[in-house]
Structure to design on (213 residues):
């Protein structure tokens, strides 16, 4: 799923693509989805647990209603810049596949533009989207405080703060294993490229470990 983006302007378009379109094409009913609530770019997102599930069999889609929590994965998009409201965003929206609708789930602790994020699966908690960095106008710069959410409604913020002197804007991020996050590269406030790599073992490390600079 691709949400928004920048092509000389910000867009609300939502499109669904297959990683193997030849063998597993996206059903026609899913290719073009309802627009995102904002014309945005620079958001982060992933599939998280909860919500409604839509089964597509041989191109036919039907909604399965569940009365109890289940392990269906639903898209969650957070932050970015909303051109329609001329504002940096802290909001997170869930996408409900069956109703083809975006619903406000909650808000991050702060707005973030061009943050980075990846899924972590800590042994003592449910899978969550771990978010780092991004531009935060409230602090007049890059946000060194990570946060995570498993549902877009509640957020955990008691993580070690990243080194404020390092770039955390437009960085790359990935999960090295189930609970280890790696952040590398990006830009500083002067929009100069940075060459550094740091990691954090979520729930264990008390500070970020710089691997290389």
């Amino acid at each position: 799923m691709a949400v928004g983006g920048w092509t000389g302007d910000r867009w609300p378009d939502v499109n669904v693509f297959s990683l193997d379109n030849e063998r597993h094409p996206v059903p026609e009913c899913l290719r073009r989805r309802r627009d995102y609530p904002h014309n945005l770019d620079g958001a982060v997102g992933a599939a998280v647990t909860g919500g409604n599930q839509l089964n597509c069999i041989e191109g036919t889609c039907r909604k399965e209603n569940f009365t109890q929590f289940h392990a269906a994965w639903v898209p969650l998009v957070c932050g970015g810049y909303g051109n329609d409201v001329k504002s940096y965003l802290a909001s997170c929206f869930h996408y409900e596949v069956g109703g083809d609708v975006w619903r406000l789930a909650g808000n991050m602790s702060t707005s973030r533009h061009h943050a980075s994020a990846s899924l972590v699966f800590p042994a003592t908690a449910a899978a969550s989207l771990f978010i780092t960095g991004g531009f935060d106008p409230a602090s007049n710069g890059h946000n060194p405080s990570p946060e995570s959410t498993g549902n877009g409604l509640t957020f955990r913020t008691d993580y070690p703060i990243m080194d404020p002197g390092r770039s955390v804007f437009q960085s790359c991020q990935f999960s090295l294993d189930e609970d280890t996050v790696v952040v590398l590269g990006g830009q500083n406030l002067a929009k100069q490229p940075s060459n550094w790599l740091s990691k954090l073992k979520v729930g264990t490390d008390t500070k970020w470990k710089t691997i290389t600079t």
Q: What stands out?
A: The chain has a mean pLDDT of 82. The longest helix spans residues 28-31.
